[in-house]
Amino acid sequence: MEANNGGFCIQFACVPESFESSRNDTLHNIDSNSILTDYDSPPPEFENTTERDVIAAIGTTARLHCRVRYLGDRAVSWIRKRDLHILTIGIMTYTNDQRFLARHLDNSDEWILKIVSVQTRDAGIYECQVSTEPKISQAYKLTVVTSRAQILANRELFIQSGSDINLTCIAPQAPGPYTHMLWYKDSELISDSTRGGIRVLSEQQMKTSNLVISRVIHADSGNYTCAADNSNSDSVFVHIINSEKHAAMQHELASRILVPRILLTVLTLFYFLERVIK
């Protein structure tokens, strides 16, 4: 290689100095763009819009939602805190307990840990972890409850034929902000369209439901059940007393009161007659 008026020659071919300068500028721009691109890619971060205190009733399905932005090529894992057991990595499950599942939609920032048929032992802290260096994680608390619907009445009710049934059911421990509640009579669903005179009024946010049956008849006797979402049900038995039977009961009661009065009157009369004869 030899110099040639400010340039250089390689195997009899001369390269102008301006070409070498342009080459250096190009390499510099490539390096600068590469550095700028790396700098512009923000690190992964959690999106704090998901519920991190989750309540689930025994036997139901719990879902823990973790959202991670700017994940890139990192992996998201779910870890059970009490024993540091890795449950899932990405969409793969790493536990023999088949109740634990990973759920993720392509192009989504959300990574879900699904726990089917929740048990008491599942309660505790779970971590959503991102494989950065150092690792970042976010904790979720799962509370497991035994929820039960409760009908505010005695276990057996005696209602006179022609009057109204009015039952109120509550489910204060039912998980979630809203609770769907249904009424059944002898395992058949009760609704406003079952027959005339039936009204079901439920307040899902208040977790209460009211059942009113107007002008009941003997056929309305039976077992009434209130069922709430993710809760054990509650039942009461309603006996419809016919008007005739009710009247007979009243007549029998009146007779029991009247007989002693008549006897007392007769005895008093005999007492005065005896005094007069003497």
TrEMBL record:
InterPro entries: Ig-like_dom, Ig-like_dom_sf, Ig-like_fold, Ig_sub, Ig_sub2, Ig_V-set, Zig-8
Lineage top rank: taxon: Eukaryota
GO biological process: synapse organization
Domain Ig-like: 44-131, 134-237
SUPFAM superfamilies on file: Immunoglobulin
Family annotation (Gene3D superfamilies): Immunoglobulins
GO terms for cellular component: neuron projection membrane
Name of the protein in its database record: Ig-like domain-containing protein
Source species of the chain: Glossina morsitans morsitans (Savannah tsetse fly)
